[in-house]
Amino acid sequence: xxxxxxxxxxxxxxxxxxxxxxxxxxxxxxxxxxxxxxxxxxxxxxxxxxxxxxxxxxxxxxxxxxxxxxxxxxxxxxxxxxxxxxxxxxxxxxxxxxxxxxxxxxxxxxxxxxxxxxxxxxxxxxxxxxxxxxxxxxxxxxxxxxxxxxxxxxxxxxxxxxxxxxxxxxxxxxxxxxxxxxxxxxxxxxxxxxxxxxxxxx
Length: 202
What we know:
- By secondary structure, this protein is mainly β.
- It has one domain: UDP N-Acetylglucosamine Acyltransferase, domain 1, CATH 2.160.10.
- It contains one helix and 19 strands.
- The protein has one helix at 113-122, and strands at residues 23-25, 30-31, 48-50, 55-57, 61-64, 69-72, 77-79, 82-85, 88-91, 96-97, 102-104, 140-142, 147-148, 153-154, 159-160, 165-166, 171-172, 180-183, 188-192.
- The strands form three sheets. It has an eight-stranded mixed sheet with strand order 2-4-7-10-13-16-18-19, with no helix packed on it.
- The longest helix has 10 residues, at 113-122.
- The model has no long low-confidence stretch (mean pLDDT 92).
């Protein structure tokens, strides 16, 4: 894996963009379109890391702030998720993130209604019209071989344990134990899964 300086494009890409220089991509990893980086602002090196065989398919959006860092482990697959990251989001090896999933390590707006109103009043005079409430991020971890179903929302500070399944359209507000199935709003444990120690090929 290497970080390449200079513009990088994707052959046949419908979007006329580039992969940022501080995105480290294994030679066997796959990104469908540079459109995934239109909201990418990370100044970290690297700001995104994609391991061996990792994939980011159509609709995946890396909305990464200046201090954000996103990691996709080996063979991790993200299909059309929005990743809002101002701290760290780790998607471990063999994890599967379905379409329309939202992973957010920061709310980006204050909970206080008066503070939100003042923030919205400032937006029209900002050059980038971007909401930034100076709220504190909290890292997210998606464990090895976890499966996050479509339309799921994972909130700041949550860890999804190894081998777990998050049911479609769930809202995950607290940690998910390893090898469990959770579902609902808020997500609750539905059952545990039988498992064997997975083979780890390095």
